[in-house]
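Morning!

This is the sequence you dropped in the shared folder:
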Amino acid sequence: MTHRTGRGAIVAGGAAACCVAAYLSIVRPRLLRWGATPDEVQEPYPGADLIPDSSRSATMAVTIDAPPSRVWPWLVQMGTDRAGWYSWDRLDNFGRRSAESIHPEWQDIALGQHLAAKPDGSEWWEVAALEPERFLGLRMSLDLRGRPFDPAGTRPRFYTDSLWGFDVRSLPEERTRLVVSGYWALRPTWLQPIMSAAILEPSHWVMQTRQFSNLKRLVTGYWPAQTAAPGGRQWFDTLAT
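The structure's back. Tokens below.
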């Protein structure tokens, strides 16, 4: 019995190792550049100087059949205390439904403004970079207990500091290329690759692709038929275009 149990553990361990290897070599590279072109992944991305000693995060992109002037108003009204995040509301907006329309009262945005990440305002994204109809950079600086800190002051011993960027690019025929990327620094540094591969990258992909899909629907005023069956190949291809 002991022999069989040991053999089963070896088989299970081998299968698990194969799954991990497949994820790291096949799945993860796709998550890190979902919908983005090689140039969009490799070219410089705005905001590198905002997060000291940081690494470039995933680069994801989507084409929206509307000009930047119609995309931008949806981006600047984001926030848990405002229009939400247009993603999976039960997961990232505390069950509050994201807005389905443009709200004039949420269109004014300025550098240094806090966009709440929690209903009680205890965590937020700070507007760290702002170029109207061109680029929006949101920064979150927390110690590892989840408490915000001022990145201009003394940093905690252990912290996470990140920039979530929205690069809005004008395309011919009144279309928009929205390239989302950013930068991330985590201390202790040894924890960053583990957190990235195991938790943050998959969860970011889930949330960002949902946001892309909803932005396409909201901005253009329709819901592509391909999104009716999540999980199917057409759904993935729709998000990646």
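Headline: The domain at 33-239 is CATH 3.30.530.20 (Alpha-D-Glucose-1,6-Bisphosphate; Chain A, domain 4).

More detail when I'm at my desk.
O.
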